[in-house]
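User: These chains co-purify. Model them together.
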Amino acid sequence: TQLLEQSPQFLSIQEGENLTVYCNSSSVFSSLQWYRQEPGEGPVLLVTVVTGGEVKKLKRLTFQFGDARKDSSLHITAAQPGDTGLYLCAGEDGNKLVFGAGTILRVKS
Amino acid sequence: KAGVTQTPRYLIKTRGQQVTLSCSPISGHRSVSWYQQTPGQGLQFLFEYFSETQRNKGNFPGRFSGRQFSNSRSEMNVSTLELGDSALYLCASSLGPTGRGANEKLFFGSGTQLSVL
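Assistant: Joint model of the two components:
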């Protein structure tokens, strides 16, 4: 089973700050997905990155897939309280998706 | 278009009992995956069903089982409940089966919060 490690586990920042969360593995993934989960809800897909070196932007969120397709990062610019949640990365491992443990982000106003 | 619906939303059971959770996927989606989410272990894959067939199963004991009906609705059953089964059980649907480069988008329900006392 391929493992995905996410860091940091927890991040508490002030509104307006920038942040980056990481998703790393020793294995190569054909693609990686990023999800955000809010309390009491299921995860919601934000983006899928497929090509090594790929960068995708979603408003203030920038996602990057490593050249070797073993790691990915999520950068948030000028974080807002609405960005608060659990951020999960997921990759295909054979016939299933495996998830990292997630990064809990708290943005204080 | 309605999203993924999971029932019940909350459930309280005692050790030794059994429980059945239900998941109705998005209309047209034929794949349903189940995950267990706990604070310590994160999201752990339970199993996936596609066209009424189990495609893959995670590392869970045989007490955890599931099935999918012809209308793609799925149920998950846990027998002889243990305290450690307390978790949020999430169901996700997708158009096609996941894995093997399919890059399928998963749509999750809000989950069933199971508490075992």
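Residues 49 and 80 of chain A are 24 Å apart (CA to CA).
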